[in-house]
Design a protein that fits this description.
heterotrimer, A alpha/beta, B mainly alpha, C mainly alpha, A: alpha/beta, Rossmann fold, Ubiquitin-like (UB roll), 3 domains, 5-stranded mixed β-sheet, 33% helix, 15% strand, globular, B: mainly alpha, Ammonium transporter fold, 16 helices, 2 strands, 4Fe4S_Fe-S-bd (chain A)
């Protein structure tokens, strides 16, 4: 059990009722089967590493945690001879469970995919990472899945980005759980990746849960297929903390990294509060920055303190905006400050 | 679907400026209840008058500055509630009026209004009232004597234990009486027990943190311990000093004002400790029997610099771990290498 | 600015302060425009300083009957001899004609007189409850106004007020010129 940042914020996860329901394919949005050329190997366990990588390349598998192609990650890991693989099923953002649900519902396939990936990179150690602070779940998270140890990561949000960074430093390959499932399908059943796992939830959704949707379907079509109880006021594609708001869901198409589609009935009123100077953002920032300080410096036209504030360390988690009682858009200001600082750094020629 | 866009994150915490200020308003209500118990309904009249004057001044100043008046975050109301608590219950309405007007229209709005003010408006207003009425601001009614709505000469006014301490003598009031509030003093400042309960309430609700009030009271106690003014055992002297005057109510309400205090923990402790020590020092050399407000205003002026020092410190600590936190560079493998791996 | 804030606690004191400043400034300005060119720069400061000190001393002698007032003004009487207005005028005016210099100096001192009179009247009326020494009852008595601190704050509000009035006047002028332009007037 590794602990990640002590700072950051503890969020209510709200993953039920979606997590415990079966993952379904919607009849209105069927997933088309696209078969790979060539026969399916009858002894997948004896495939050579380069064969696994080339099957991953042909199957167009994209890792949902960073959008990179799986075959490139495997090839690079093989070259760098990493010591092991960690399966990322963290899902530390509220409402989203599109990695956790497949992990719990398809353990065998996950295990087979994991073995394939281990062979591809020539490593032997592996573990699965799941967020520890999931309190309101109906299912129990087991302590090991098919013999692979499950690591419960405790700590506040944002734990996922920290986990990823720490593991990449320790020469471990981090792969998303869904990518391994698609790898297993590619090798054992000869199918390309033509779908993705998406959590559709929110208080406007009639059947909240995880769905396997075909790639390229529009958000509007998905919402209609899942069913809406009321007209939502906000539709978010992506995570609840880092996703983006949609104005016209019928023109936004889902990709492998979307992972979530949320529809909320509540809209936030703009009460016009000014910054209180309460300092909650500074307490919440997992990087130890002071969004209050950066906000004040960016608002004033004298930015000579900006280097002091190290705005380029911002990871864009949104904790500062979350805790702000004045409901300021601190995450945007931090992003602007980070861009400003990086521009100044490159202009100044400093690393 | 008529959708609204919003910048991420799309969920927000349930706390808002309004809830924070409401918590502080709730924390002042027991003090008003005790004041009514001791001095009659005049306490409520003063409180209501203060709220009305402060809110209207707030709105008027915002209107003058060309903004739409927004008093929904109750910050003017909090100032209006705090000012009568820092003054005697026999304060005249003109005293409250002037204190509120000065606090809002001179010490808060010209500096930029809510969130940008340097000085605590309640402290500034009350300090100005103390300067303008040096005798009436320190003449307190006796507890349990009901005050009429308009105070005239028939009300008996006495001096508070702080005055006795400033002369170098031990106050002739029992420590237990001072703890319960049965002593002449500022309307909200005497009920020490209730004040400590309000502090615990605010800390539990996470509206304020523990660092600043603890550092403040610690600093004041240390100075009182080192330089006692009364000829009594050390802890008794410290108890007398802390329970007389505005120190405890300052620790609960004035020093925790989020706008005028530093943001990081170490600067907070430094600020609290400095204010405590400074206010005790002012008690020794000051002209008034209670100079905590002036010490607070002086320290308020230094808060931005303390914040910048805190940022320097945080920057130095981050630089040590900078490699730990920066993103590792993402490298894409070249096409030829994969071709080689395939063979 | 300290001249206008610290000693101006009563109307009489304010007027006297302006008188001293005028005595220091106007003769020096006139003298500067008359003979300024002939004085080498090294000696200009002591020269004008001596002149203005002489005038200040003269005035003080004339009003030496008002001991209380002079005590109120205190150290600002000798300080008036070297005030900034005088220095600026003395350095600028050698190049100008006498009527210009006189006009400049008189206008500056008149401006000071206005502000000092207004401030001191306000502070005396509301702060000490009298005007020109005559006790009057003010609607509200703000004893803190006699402090220098309040004087600075009052100056701040006053300048804010004047800026507002200024912007209104400029706004009206702009509006009028636009109107003339729209009516095909001869504004460019």
């Amino acid at each position: 059990m590794r602990n990640y940042p002590r700072k950051g914020i503890l969020l209510e996860q709200n993953k039920e009722p979606g997590l415990s329901k079966e993952i379904r394919i919607l009849p209105a949005l069927p997933v088309e089967r696209s078969e790979l050329p060539g026969p399916v190997s009858s002894t997948p366990d004896l495939l050579a590493p380069y064969e696994i990588v080339s099957i991953a390349k042909e199957a167009n598998i994209v890792d949902e945690i960073d959008g990179r192609r799986l075959w490139k990650k495997l090839a690079q890991a093989a070259r760098e001879s990493v010591s092991g693989i960690v399966v990322d099923a963290l899902d530390d953002e509220p409402y989203i469970s599109s990695q956790l649900a497949p992990t719990l519902q398809f353990p065998e396939q996950l295990h087979q995919g994991l073995r394939l990936a281990l062979r591809a990179i020539g490593a032997s150690k592996s573990s699965i990472e799941i967020y520890r602070n999931l309190f309101d779940l109906d299912t129990r998270i087991p302590s090991s899945i098919m013999g692979v140890k499950v690591d419960r990561i405790s700590g506040s949000y944002p734990a996922e980005s920290y986990a990823r960074r720490r593991l990449q430093r320790n020469s471990t390959l981090v792969v998303g759980a869904c990518a391994l499932l698609f790898l297993q399908r590619a090798v054992y059943e000869g199918l390309r990746q033509t779908s993705a796992f998406v959590t559709v939830t929110g208080d406007c959704v009639a059947n909240p849960g995880n769905y396997e949707v075909p790639l390229g379907v529009s958000a509007g079509a998905l919402l209609e297929a899942v069913g809406l109880i009321t007209d939502p006021k906000r539709v978010v594609a992506g995570g609840s903390m880092t996703g983006f708001s949609l104005t016209d869901p019928s023109t936004v198409y889902l990709s492998q990294t979307t992972r979530g589609l949320l529809a909320f009935a509540e809209e936030f009123q703009d009460m016009g509060y000014a910054c209180l100077g309460c300092g909650r953002c500074t307490e919440a920032c997992p990087q130890g920055l002071s969004p209050y300080f950066i906000y004040k410096v960016m608002q004033s036209h004298r930015k000579h303190h900006i280097e002091l504030a190290d705005a380029d360390l911002c990871i864009g988690c949104g904790s500062c905006s979350y805790v702000c009682p004045a409901k300021l858009d601190l995450a945007q200001v931090m992003a602007q400050a980070a861009a400003y600082t990086r521009r100044r750094q490159t202009a100044g020629g400093q690393p | 679907m008529k959708l609204r866009t919003q910048n991420p994150p799309h969920i927000r915490s349930r706390e808002s400026s309004l809830t924070m200020m409401t918590d502080i308003v709730i924390a002042t209500l027991p003090l008003y209840a005790m004041a009514v118990y001791y001095y009659g309904t005049r306490a409520l009249l003063l409180g209501g008058f203060g709220v009305i004057v402060s809110s209207m001044a707030d709105g008027a100043c915002q209107l003058l500055a060309g903004r739409i008046p927004n008093i929904r975050d109750l910050s003017g109301a909090v100032t209006g509630l705090l000012i009568p608590l820092l003054l005697p219950a026999s304060a005249s309405y003109s005293m409250i009026l002037l204190a509120a007007l000065f606090g809002i229209a001179v010490a808060k709005q010209p500096f930029g209004g809510m969130g940008q003010n340097i000085f605590n408006p309640a402290a500034a207003g009350t300090a100005f009232a103390m300067i303008c009425w040096p005798k009436s601001a320190f003449a307190y009614p006796v507890p349990f004597e009901r005050l009429p709505a308009m105070v005239d000469d028939t009300v008996r006014l006495v001096s508070s234990p702080a005055y006795s301490l400033s002369l170098g003598g031990t106050p002739n009031i029992d420590l237990l009486d001072m703890l319960l509030g049965n002593a002449p003093g500022p309307m909200g400042g005497t009920n020490i027990l209730v004040l400590l309960t309000c502090l615990i309430f605010l800390i539990v609700r996470k509206t304020v943190g523990l660092a600043m009030p603890a550092a403040f009271l610690g600093g004041a106690s240390l100075m009182a311990l080192l330089t006692p003014r009364v000829d009594a055992p050390a802890l008794t002297a410290v108890a007398y000093e802390l329970m007389s005057g505005l120190l405890v109510i300052g620790a609960v309400f004035l020093i925790n004002d989020p706008v005028t205090s530093p943001k990081r923990t170490l600067p907070k402790i430094f600020y609290g400790f400095g204010t405590g020590a400074l206010s005790m020092a002012f008690r020794h050399i000051g002209r008034y029997e209670e100079s905590f407000l002036f010490a607070l205003l002086v320290m308020n002026a230094t808060v931005w610099i303390i914040d910048v020092w805190g940022e320097h410190l945080a920057h130095a600590m981050r630089r040590k771990n900078r490699e730990f936190k920066t993103n590792p560079p993402v490298s894409e493998p070249a096409e030829q290498d994969v071709g080689a791996a395939q063979k | 600015m300290p001249f206008v804030i610290v000693p101006t606690l009563s109307l009489k004191a304010g007027l006297l302060m302006s008188a001293f400043l005028a005595a220091a400034t106007i003769p020096s300005a006139v003298l500067a425009s008359l003979v300024g060119r002939k004085i080498p720069p090294l000696f200009s400061l002591p020269f004008y300083g001596t002149v203005s000190t002489g005038c200040v001393l003269l005035l003080r002698f004339c009003v030496s009957g008002q001991a209380l007032l002079l005590e109120d003004l205190g150290v600002y009487v000798p300080l008036a001899a070297f005030n900034g207005m005088m220095l600026e005028l003395a350095l600028v005016h050698p190049r100008r004609r006498v009527p210009d210099a006189l006009h400049d100096a008189v206008m500056m001192c008149f401006g000071f007189l206005l502000v000092a009179a207004f401030l001191s009247a306000l502070r005396e009326f509301l702060g000490s409850g009298s005007l020109w020494g005559v006790p009057l009852t003010a609607p509200i008595r703000i004893r803190g106004l006699v402090l220098p601190f309040s004087g600075f704050i009052l100056i701040g509000f006053l300048s804010a007020l004047f800026r507002r009035v200024d912007s209104i006047i400029i706004g009206r002028m702009l509006h009028a010129s636009r109107r003339t332009a729209k009516q095909g007037g001869d504004a460019v």
